[in-house]
Amino acid sequence: MSRIGKKPIEIPKGVEVKVDGQTVTVKGPKGELTQSFDKDLRIELNDGVLTVERPNDIKRIKALHGLTRTLIYNMIIGVTEGYTKSLEIIGTGYRAAKKGKVLSLNLGFSHPLDIEDPEGIEVEVPSPNSIIVKGNDKQQVGAYAAYIRRFREPEPYKGKGIRYTDEHVRRKVGKTGK
């Protein structure tokens, strides 16, 4: 049995969860999230406790059991606390600025990159060398942070580029002279 899938999810105060067949809607102080899940799993809500049950032990169903429970739990955390990803920019002349809903990145190209924030995502630039991506959907926050990082990934010789705050970049020595 899936150890994660068997765990019941306690619904915190201030969060409203609706289960309509295979669609789960979660409302909380930070917004509303809706997601549909596989038709073979049973999602039940009883007295403020949500459980995910599987009908059999087919490999595909076993794989979806823990995933479904985790996705619902992430939705609940997202509407109560929200998710953040921190990025830092390292390199001479590399910097970020925020103009309304547009993130402007100077990353050594001939022009600045202007990226508009997607729906449901908030981007903060506390200093020119750091970016904070916030939102209530964990997948969307991680995907947008990875999208920003992709413009200038950290290189191994000088470490220049955009990296996650907790990321460790393996450095290489480089060439040696005679």
CATH architecture of the largest domain: Alpha-Beta Complex
Low-pLDDT runs of 5+ residues are: none
What's the overall geometry? Answer: elongated
* DSSP E strands, number: 13
Question: How many structural domains does the protein architecture include?
Answer: 2
Determine the structural class based on helices, strands and strand pairing: alpha+beta
Strand content: 35-45%
Largest beta sheet: what is the strand line-up? 11-12-7-13
The count of helical stretches stands at 3
Helix percentage range: 10-25%
Q: Give me the Rg, rounded.
A: 21 Å
Compute the average pLDDT.
92
Q: What is the name of the CATH topology of the largest domain?
A: Outer Surface Protein A, domain 3
CATH class of the largest domain: Alpha Beta
SSE sequence, one letter per element: HEEEEEEHEEEEEEHE
* CATH homologous superfamily title of the largest domain: Ribosomal protein L6
Describe the protein in words.
With 178 residues, the chain is an alpha+beta fold. The chain has 2 domains: 9-81, Outer Surface Protein A, domain 3; 83-164, Ribosomal protein L6 (Outer Surface Protein A, domain 3). The chain is 22% helix and 38% strand. It has 3 helices and 13 strands, in the order H-E-E-E-E-E-E-H-E-E-E-E-E-E-H-E. The chain has helices spanning 3-6, 59-80, 138-150; strands at 9-10, 16-20, 23-28, 31-36, 42-46, 49-53, 83-90, 95-99, 102-106, 113-116, 121-127, 130-135, 161-164. The strands form 4 sheets. It has a 4-stranded antiparallel sheet with strand order 11-12-7-13, covered by helices on one side. Strand 8 and strand 9 form a beta hairpin. The protein is elongated.
